[in-house]
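Residues pack. Consider this:
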Amino acid sequence: MGCGNGHITEYLHDLSGAFYEGIDISEEAIRQAHKRTQDKKERLAFDVGNMNRLDFPHQSFSAVISVDTLYYVNSLEETIKQMVEVLKPNGQMGIFFTQWINDIEDKAWLLPENTNLALVLKKYKMKFTTLELTWHEAEHWRKKVDVLDCLKAEFEEEGNLSLYDYRYSEAARYANWDLEERSRYLYHVQL
């Protein structure tokens, strides 16, 4: 869900050989995914789709994967319900989710059982396990800042300094966000 130009979806397909269908609201991203993966059409599909309205038949998939996309839905609760509807019996969800707080007094919200996602899963009595990835995420953003520092001249030569500025400000913001005010987990839900 929210596959962008499909690089992660393609990677998962190449790793497992399983069929994957990626959806994203961006027509351009889906066009790029189709162009790059033409030789993999039998086991890899991409479609323009909206996470707020999962237009798939009931019990279509064995698993649903969301990597940092559920922050953008209109209703986390409604989207989770739709994810369950498109899953086959004993289906699974893999959801990467980061929780942020602005006040250290809210630190309890960072626990895996208290994040916004966990509260919805618990409301519908979905059991889940988590893998804690907070430090790894922070390291990712620090590396992104370093890479962007190295590539600034190339962005400038291409006339893409505004893209560089946007990406750099995003990476710097998250690289410097206090580890005491965020948590990141991979949630695994088995129906």
User: Anything to note?
Assistant: The CA atoms of residues 152 and 158 lie 10 Å apart. The longest strand covers residues 87-100.
